[in-house]
Design a protein that fits this description.
Elements lengths: L1 H19 L3 E4 L4 H11 L11 E7 L17 E5 L8 E6 L8 H7 L13 E4 L17 E5 L11 E3 L4 E3 L1 H14 L7 E7 L1 H14 L7 E7 L14 H13 L7 H4 L21 E6 L3 H8 L11 H5 L6 H17 L1 H4 L5 E5 L10 H4 L6 E2 L2 E2 H9 L6 E3 L11 E4 L1
Parallel strand pairs: 1-16, 4-6, 4-9, 9-10, 10-11, 11-12, 12-15
Antiparallel strand pairs: 2-3, 2-5, 3-6, 7-8, 13-14
Helix pairs in contact: 1-2
Length: 419
Protein backbone atom coordinates (compact mmCIF):
# COMPACT_ATOMS: atom_id res chain seq x y z
CA UNK A 1 0.00 0.00 0.00
CA UNK A 2 2.80 2.40 0.85
CA UNK A 3 4.40 1.85 -2.55
CA UNK A 4 1.08 2.52 -4.30
CA UNK A 5 0.46 5.65 -2.22
CA UNK A 6 3.81 7.23 -3.05
CA UNK A 7 3.50 6.08 -6.66
CA UNK A 8 0.19 7.94 -7.02
CA UNK A 9 1.73 11.03 -5.43
CA UNK A 10 4.70 10.74 -7.76
CA UNK A 11 2.51 10.39 -10.85
CA UNK A 12 0.64 13.52 -9.83
CA UNK A 13 3.89 15.40 -9.36
CA UNK A 14 5.16 14.18 -12.73
CA UNK A 15 2.00 15.53 -14.38
CA UNK A 16 2.42 18.82 -12.54
CA UNK A 17 6.01 19.06 -13.75
CA UNK A 18 5.02 18.26 -17.32
CA UNK A 19 2.37 20.97 -17.27
CA UNK A 20 4.24 23.68 -15.40
CA UNK A 21 7.93 22.90 -15.91
CA UNK A 22 10.55 21.08 -13.89
CA UNK A 23 11.86 24.09 -11.99
CA UNK A 24 8.54 24.83 -10.22
CA UNK A 25 6.24 22.73 -8.03
CA UNK A 26 2.59 23.85 -7.77
CA UNK A 27 0.52 22.96 -4.73
CA UNK A 28 -2.89 23.94 -3.43
CA UNK A 29 -2.27 26.44 -0.65
CA UNK A 30 -4.42 24.59 1.90
CA UNK A 31 -2.49 21.36 1.28
CA UNK A 32 0.95 22.97 1.42
CA UNK A 33 2.43 20.97 4.29
CA UNK A 34 1.08 17.62 3.11
CA UNK A 35 2.28 18.05 -0.45
CA UNK A 36 5.66 19.40 0.59
CA UNK A 37 6.17 16.23 2.61
CA UNK A 38 4.75 14.06 -0.15
CA UNK A 39 7.14 15.61 -2.64
CA UNK A 40 10.07 14.88 -0.35
CA UNK A 41 9.05 11.22 -0.09
CA UNK A 42 8.25 10.83 -3.79
CA UNK A 43 11.04 12.92 -5.28
CA UNK A 44 13.09 9.90 -6.24
CA UNK A 45 10.28 8.67 -8.46
CA UNK A 46 10.82 11.77 -10.58
CA UNK A 47 14.45 11.01 -11.32
CA UNK A 48 15.04 9.05 -14.52
CA UNK A 49 15.66 5.38 -13.86
CA UNK A 50 14.80 5.63 -10.18
CA UNK A 51 11.25 4.41 -9.79
CA UNK A 52 11.97 2.19 -6.80
CA UNK A 53 13.36 4.11 -3.81
CA UNK A 54 14.39 2.29 -0.68
CA UNK A 55 11.42 1.78 1.66
CA UNK A 56 12.33 1.50 5.35
CA UNK A 57 10.04 0.14 8.02
CA UNK A 58 8.93 1.81 11.26
CA UNK A 59 10.49 0.68 14.56
CA UNK A 60 8.64 1.63 17.74
CA UNK A 61 10.70 2.41 20.85
CA UNK A 62 9.07 -0.11 23.17
CA UNK A 63 10.87 0.92 26.36
CA UNK A 64 9.90 4.57 25.84
CA UNK A 65 6.58 4.43 27.71
CA UNK A 66 8.31 3.55 30.99
CA UNK A 67 10.27 6.81 30.64
CA UNK A 68 7.19 8.86 29.78
CA UNK A 69 8.60 9.32 26.28
CA UNK A 70 5.36 9.29 24.31
CA UNK A 71 3.68 11.12 21.45
CA UNK A 72 1.00 13.77 22.00
CA UNK A 73 -1.68 11.09 22.33
CA UNK A 74 0.40 8.79 24.58
CA UNK A 75 1.42 6.30 21.89
CA UNK A 76 4.99 5.06 21.46
CA UNK A 77 7.46 7.10 19.38
CA UNK A 78 9.33 5.52 16.51
CA UNK A 79 12.07 5.76 13.92
CA UNK A 80 13.11 4.20 10.64
CA UNK A 81 16.59 2.65 10.50
CA UNK A 82 18.54 1.33 7.54
CA UNK A 83 21.84 -0.31 8.40
CA UNK A 84 25.13 0.79 6.92
CA UNK A 85 27.73 -1.45 5.34
CA UNK A 86 31.30 -1.50 4.12
CA UNK A 87 33.20 1.70 4.83
CA UNK A 88 30.04 3.19 6.38
CA UNK A 89 29.28 0.35 8.80
CA UNK A 90 30.52 2.38 11.78
CA UNK A 91 29.12 5.75 10.66
CA UNK A 92 25.70 7.06 11.72
CA UNK A 93 23.37 9.71 10.32
CA UNK A 94 20.38 10.60 12.51
CA UNK A 95 17.68 12.66 10.83
CA UNK A 96 15.03 14.54 12.85
CA UNK A 97 11.72 14.77 11.04
CA UNK A 98 10.06 18.17 10.69
CA UNK A 99 6.46 19.24 10.36
CA UNK A 100 5.60 22.52 12.09
CA UNK A 101 4.45 22.97 15.69
CA UNK A 102 1.30 23.12 17.78
CA UNK A 103 1.00 26.14 20.04
CA UNK A 104 -2.37 25.80 21.76
CA UNK A 105 -4.75 23.10 22.94
CA UNK A 106 -6.86 23.21 19.81
CA UNK A 107 -3.95 22.76 17.39
CA UNK A 108 -2.37 20.04 19.53
CA UNK A 109 -5.63 18.10 19.91
CA UNK A 110 -6.01 18.21 16.13
CA UNK A 111 -2.41 17.18 15.66
CA UNK A 112 -2.66 14.11 17.89
CA UNK A 113 -5.04 12.57 15.36
CA UNK A 114 -2.36 12.71 12.66
CA UNK A 115 1.06 11.16 12.07
CA UNK A 116 2.54 14.33 13.59
CA UNK A 117 1.05 13.47 16.98
CA UNK A 118 0.53 9.73 17.12
CA UNK A 119 2.35 6.63 15.95
CA UNK A 120 -1.07 5.10 15.19
CA UNK A 121 -1.19 7.25 12.08
CA UNK A 122 2.45 7.00 11.00
CA UNK A 123 3.32 5.27 7.75
CA UNK A 124 4.61 1.75 8.38
CA UNK A 125 7.38 2.37 5.89
CA UNK A 126 8.73 5.49 4.18
CA UNK A 127 11.07 6.13 1.24
CA UNK A 128 14.64 7.13 2.03
CA UNK A 129 15.69 9.71 -0.55
CA UNK A 130 18.22 12.54 -0.75
CA UNK A 131 20.58 12.49 2.21
CA UNK A 132 18.92 9.22 3.33
CA UNK A 133 19.30 7.40 0.01
CA UNK A 134 21.29 4.17 -0.13
CA UNK A 135 22.51 4.79 -3.67
CA UNK A 136 25.93 6.36 -4.28
CA UNK A 137 24.68 8.08 -7.44
CA UNK A 138 22.06 9.87 -5.29
CA UNK A 139 23.96 10.35 -2.04
CA UNK A 140 27.70 10.14 -2.69
CA UNK A 141 29.05 10.64 0.85
CA UNK A 142 26.48 9.04 3.17
CA UNK A 143 24.81 6.29 1.11
CA UNK A 144 26.33 3.37 3.07
CA UNK A 145 26.07 4.87 6.57
CA UNK A 146 23.62 3.69 9.19
CA UNK A 147 20.74 6.12 8.55
CA UNK A 148 17.91 6.67 11.03
CA UNK A 149 14.92 9.00 10.72
CA UNK A 150 13.28 9.88 14.05
CA UNK A 151 9.56 10.54 13.61
CA UNK A 152 8.16 13.80 14.91
CA UNK A 153 5.08 13.41 17.10
CA UNK A 154 5.43 15.98 19.90
CA UNK A 155 4.81 19.28 18.09
CA UNK A 156 7.60 21.10 19.93
CA UNK A 157 10.83 20.34 18.03
CA UNK A 158 11.71 17.56 20.50
CA UNK A 159 12.11 20.15 23.29
CA UNK A 160 9.01 20.02 25.48
CA UNK A 161 8.41 18.21 28.76
CA UNK A 162 4.94 18.83 30.15
CA UNK A 163 1.33 17.71 29.83
CA UNK A 164 -2.27 18.90 29.72
CA UNK A 165 -4.33 16.34 31.60
CA UNK A 166 -7.69 17.90 30.74
CA UNK A 167 -6.96 17.77 27.01
CA UNK A 168 -5.16 14.40 27.32
CA UNK A 169 -2.01 15.79 25.73
CA UNK A 170 1.56 14.68 26.42
CA UNK A 171 4.33 17.13 25.58
CA UNK A 172 7.34 14.82 25.82
CA UNK A 173 9.63 15.80 22.98
CA UNK A 174 12.79 15.90 25.09
CA UNK A 175 12.05 12.45 26.49
CA UNK A 176 11.34 11.11 22.99
CA UNK A 177 14.71 12.43 21.85
CA UNK A 178 16.49 10.84 24.82
CA UNK A 179 14.69 7.48 24.52
CA UNK A 180 15.32 7.24 20.79
CA UNK A 181 19.00 8.07 21.18
CA UNK A 182 19.31 5.45 23.93
CA UNK A 183 17.68 2.89 21.65
CA UNK A 184 20.02 3.71 18.75
CA UNK A 185 23.03 3.59 21.08
CA UNK A 186 21.98 0.08 22.11
CA UNK A 187 21.99 -0.85 18.42
CA UNK A 188 25.62 0.15 17.95
CA UNK A 189 25.58 3.92 17.52
CA UNK A 190 27.82 4.44 20.55
CA UNK A 191 30.67 2.78 18.63
CA UNK A 192 30.39 5.16 15.69
CA UNK A 193 33.61 6.66 14.39
CA UNK A 194 31.60 9.29 12.49
CA UNK A 195 28.16 10.77 13.21
CA UNK A 196 25.96 13.46 11.71
CA UNK A 197 22.73 14.86 13.17
CA UNK A 198 20.47 16.42 10.56
CA UNK A 199 16.92 17.67 10.30
CA UNK A 200 14.62 19.75 8.13
CA UNK A 201 12.29 22.61 9.15
CA UNK A 202 11.08 21.99 12.73
CA UNK A 203 13.60 19.13 12.67
CA UNK A 204 16.26 21.62 11.60
CA UNK A 205 15.45 23.74 14.64
CA UNK A 206 15.59 20.60 16.80
CA UNK A 207 19.00 19.79 15.32
CA UNK A 208 20.33 23.15 16.51
CA UNK A 209 18.77 22.72 19.97
CA UNK A 210 20.15 19.19 20.42
CA UNK A 211 23.46 19.47 18.54
CA UNK A 212 25.76 19.69 21.55
CA UNK A 213 23.70 17.06 23.36
CA UNK A 214 24.21 14.75 20.37
CA UNK A 215 27.97 15.37 20.56
CA UNK A 216 27.86 14.27 24.20
CA UNK A 217 26.57 10.82 23.27
CA UNK A 218 29.89 9.82 21.72
CA UNK A 219 33.53 9.45 22.78
CA UNK A 220 35.83 12.37 22.04
CA UNK A 221 37.45 10.39 19.26
CA UNK A 222 34.19 10.26 17.26
CA UNK A 223 33.83 12.85 14.50
CA UNK A 224 30.47 14.52 15.22
CA UNK A 225 28.80 17.35 13.30
CA UNK A 226 25.28 18.71 12.74
CA UNK A 227 23.33 19.87 9.69
CA UNK A 228 20.26 22.12 9.95
CA UNK A 229 18.18 22.31 6.77
CA UNK A 230 15.58 25.12 6.56
CA UNK A 231 15.75 25.52 10.33
CA UNK A 232 16.91 29.13 10.49
CA UNK A 233 13.59 30.61 11.60
CA UNK A 234 13.92 34.35 12.22
CA UNK A 235 12.27 36.58 14.79
CA UNK A 236 11.02 38.89 12.06
CA UNK A 237 8.40 41.61 11.83
CA UNK A 238 5.57 40.64 9.49
CA UNK A 239 3.91 42.85 6.89
CA UNK A 240 1.51 44.29 9.49
CA UNK A 241 4.29 45.24 11.90
CA UNK A 242 3.57 42.35 14.27
CA UNK A 243 5.66 39.30 15.17
CA UNK A 244 3.52 36.36 14.07
CA UNK A 245 6.17 33.67 14.54
CA UNK A 246 7.20 34.98 17.97
CA UNK A 247 3.57 34.77 19.07
CA UNK A 248 3.39 31.18 17.83
CA UNK A 249 6.67 30.21 19.49
CA UNK A 250 5.55 31.83 22.73
CA UNK A 251 2.61 29.42 22.76
CA UNK A 252 4.77 26.40 21.91
CA UNK A 253 7.39 27.12 24.57
CA UNK A 254 4.90 28.05 27.27
CA UNK A 255 2.42 25.23 26.76
CA UNK A 256 5.04 22.52 26.24
CA UNK A 257 7.31 23.77 29.06
CA UNK A 258 10.25 23.74 26.67
CA UNK A 259 12.20 26.37 28.61
CA UNK A 260 13.75 23.73 30.89
CA UNK A 261 15.35 21.99 27.89
CA UNK A 262 16.60 24.99 25.91
CA UNK A 263 20.35 25.74 26.07
CA UNK A 264 21.15 27.47 29.35
CA UNK A 265 23.80 29.60 27.71
CA UNK A 266 20.84 31.35 26.07
CA UNK A 267 18.17 31.24 28.78
CA UNK A 268 20.64 32.73 31.28
CA UNK A 269 20.30 36.07 29.51
CA UNK A 270 17.25 35.88 27.19
CA UNK A 271 13.61 34.91 27.66
CA UNK A 272 12.68 31.31 26.75
CA UNK A 273 10.80 32.26 23.57
CA UNK A 274 13.85 34.12 22.25
CA UNK A 275 15.87 30.97 22.92
CA UNK A 276 13.57 28.98 20.63
CA UNK A 277 14.80 31.13 17.74
CA UNK A 278 17.94 29.71 16.07
CA UNK A 279 19.44 33.17 15.55
CA UNK A 280 19.96 33.34 19.32
CA UNK A 281 21.43 29.83 19.57
CA UNK A 282 23.73 29.20 16.62
CA UNK A 283 26.76 31.26 17.69
CA UNK A 284 27.01 29.37 20.99
CA UNK A 285 26.75 25.83 19.56
CA UNK A 286 30.14 24.24 20.27
CA UNK A 287 29.77 21.32 17.85
CA UNK A 288 30.49 22.03 14.16
CA UNK A 289 27.22 23.08 12.54
CA UNK A 290 26.20 23.53 8.90
CA UNK A 291 23.30 25.84 8.04
CA UNK A 292 21.52 25.11 4.77
CA UNK A 293 18.75 27.61 4.08
CA UNK A 294 17.06 29.49 1.31
CA UNK A 295 17.26 33.26 1.64
CA UNK A 296 13.54 33.45 0.84
CA UNK A 297 12.21 30.50 2.83
CA UNK A 298 8.76 29.59 1.49
CA UNK A 299 7.36 28.53 4.85
CA UNK A 300 8.50 31.71 6.56
CA UNK A 301 7.02 33.88 3.81
CA UNK A 302 3.71 32.01 3.99
CA UNK A 303 3.38 31.65 7.74
CA UNK A 304 5.60 34.26 9.36
CA UNK A 305 6.20 37.24 7.06
CA UNK A 306 2.93 37.45 5.11
CA UNK A 307 0.37 35.18 6.78
CA UNK A 308 -3.31 35.82 5.93
CA UNK A 309 -3.87 37.08 9.47
CA UNK A 310 -1.48 39.96 8.76
CA UNK A 311 -3.00 40.65 5.33
CA UNK A 312 -6.78 41.12 5.78
CA UNK A 313 -7.17 42.86 2.41
CA UNK A 314 -5.18 40.21 0.52
CA UNK A 315 -2.57 42.56 -0.93
CA UNK A 316 0.07 39.87 -0.47
CA UNK A 317 -2.06 36.92 -1.55
CA UNK A 318 -0.60 36.48 -5.04
CA UNK A 319 2.96 37.25 -3.94
CA UNK A 320 2.97 34.79 -1.06
CA UNK A 321 1.86 32.02 -3.44
CA UNK A 322 4.14 32.87 -6.36
CA UNK A 323 7.23 35.05 -6.11
CA UNK A 324 6.94 35.95 -9.80
CA UNK A 325 3.77 37.91 -8.96
CA UNK A 326 5.37 40.05 -6.26
CA UNK A 327 5.47 43.80 -6.79
CA UNK A 328 8.70 45.78 -6.50
CA UNK A 329 7.84 46.96 -2.95
CA UNK A 330 7.08 43.37 -1.95
CA UNK A 331 10.38 42.13 -3.37
CA UNK A 332 12.11 44.94 -1.49
CA UNK A 333 10.46 43.72 1.73
CA UNK A 334 11.65 40.17 1.03
CA UNK A 335 15.15 41.43 0.30
CA UNK A 336 15.03 42.96 3.78
CA UNK A 337 14.26 39.48 5.15
CA UNK A 338 17.33 38.13 3.35
CA UNK A 339 19.43 40.92 4.87
CA UNK A 340 18.07 40.02 8.32
CA UNK A 341 19.08 36.40 7.73
CA UNK A 342 22.61 37.32 6.67
CA UNK A 343 23.03 39.63 9.66
CA UNK A 344 21.85 36.86 12.00
CA UNK A 345 24.63 34.49 10.87
CA UNK A 346 27.56 36.93 11.03
CA UNK A 347 28.94 35.73 14.37
CA UNK A 348 28.22 32.10 13.48
CA UNK A 349 30.10 32.35 10.19
CA UNK A 350 33.30 33.60 11.84
CA UNK A 351 34.02 30.12 13.19
CA UNK A 352 36.15 27.97 10.90
CA UNK A 353 34.36 24.84 12.08
CA UNK A 354 30.94 25.92 10.78
CA UNK A 355 29.50 25.73 7.27
CA UNK A 356 26.97 27.72 5.25
CA UNK A 357 24.94 27.29 2.08
CA UNK A 358 22.42 30.12 1.65
CA UNK A 359 20.84 30.08 -1.80
CA UNK A 360 18.46 32.70 -3.17
CA UNK A 361 15.51 30.40 -3.81
CA UNK A 362 11.87 30.40 -2.80
CA UNK A 363 11.89 26.93 -1.29
CA UNK A 364 11.87 25.01 1.99
CA UNK A 365 13.92 21.89 2.84
CA UNK A 366 16.50 20.70 0.33
CA UNK A 367 18.35 17.71 1.85
CA UNK A 368 15.62 15.07 1.75
CA UNK A 369 14.39 15.81 -1.76
CA UNK A 370 16.45 14.05 -4.38
CA UNK A 371 16.03 16.81 -6.97
CA UNK A 372 17.56 19.44 -4.69
CA UNK A 373 20.07 17.28 -2.79
CA UNK A 374 21.94 15.63 -5.68
CA UNK A 375 20.72 15.35 -9.25
CA UNK A 376 21.63 16.58 -12.71
CA UNK A 377 19.82 19.90 -12.24
CA UNK A 378 20.20 20.47 -8.50
CA UNK A 379 20.58 24.04 -7.19
CA UNK A 380 24.19 25.21 -7.11
CA UNK A 381 26.27 28.03 -5.73
CA UNK A 382 29.66 28.51 -7.39
CA UNK A 383 29.05 25.33 -9.40
CA UNK A 384 28.68 23.19 -6.27
CA UNK A 385 25.53 21.22 -5.47
CA UNK A 386 24.25 20.93 -1.91
CA UNK A 387 25.30 17.30 -1.36
CA UNK A 388 28.90 17.99 -2.32
CA UNK A 389 29.02 21.19 -0.27
CA UNK A 390 27.85 19.30 2.82
CA UNK A 391 30.24 16.43 2.13
CA UNK A 392 33.21 18.73 1.62
CA UNK A 393 32.43 20.43 4.92
CA UNK A 394 31.79 17.25 6.91
CA UNK A 395 34.92 15.46 5.74
CA UNK A 396 37.07 18.60 5.95
CA UNK A 397 37.87 18.44 2.26
CA UNK A 398 37.43 22.20 2.21
CA UNK A 399 35.69 24.95 4.12
CA UNK A 400 32.23 25.78 2.81
CA UNK A 401 30.67 29.17 3.45
CA UNK A 402 28.75 30.15 0.34
CA UNK A 403 26.04 32.80 0.07
CA UNK A 404 24.13 33.34 -3.14
CA UNK A 405 23.69 36.74 -4.78
CA UNK A 406 20.19 38.22 -4.23
CA UNK A 407 17.11 37.14 -6.19
CA UNK A 408 16.68 36.91 -9.15
CA UNK A 409 20.28 36.03 -10.06
CA UNK A 410 20.11 32.25 -9.46
CA UNK A 411 18.59 30.25 -12.33
CA UNK A 412 19.28 26.85 -10.73
CA UNK A 413 16.59 27.16 -8.03
CA UNK A 414 13.73 24.72 -7.64
CA UNK A 415 11.20 27.36 -6.57
CA UNK A 416 8.00 26.36 -4.81
CA UNK A 417 4.92 27.95 -6.35
CA UNK A 418 1.48 27.53 -4.76
CA UNK A 419 -1.86 27.72 -6.51
Amino acid sequence: MAKLFWLFIAIGLVIINLVYGQQHHFFNETEELFLLEAHEHAASFLEEGNGNPLLVGLTLVHNAAAKGAVCLDGTLPGYHLHRGYGSGADSWLVNLEGGGWCNNVRSCVYRKKTRRGSSLYMEKEIPFTGILSNKPEENPDFFNWNRAKLRYCDGGSFAGDGEDQDAELQFRGQRIWAAAMEDLISKGMHFANQALLSGCSAGGLATIIHCDEFRGLFPRTTKVKCLSDAGLFLDSIDISGERTLRNMYNGVVGMQEAQKNLPQICTNHLDPTSCFFPQNLIASVRTPLFLLNTAYDSWQIQSSLAPPSADPHGYWHECRLNHAKCTRPQIKFLQGFRTHMLNSIKDFSRSNKNGLFINSCFAHCQTERQDTWFSDNSPVIRNKVIALAVGDWYFDREGVKVIDCPYPCDNTCHHLVFS
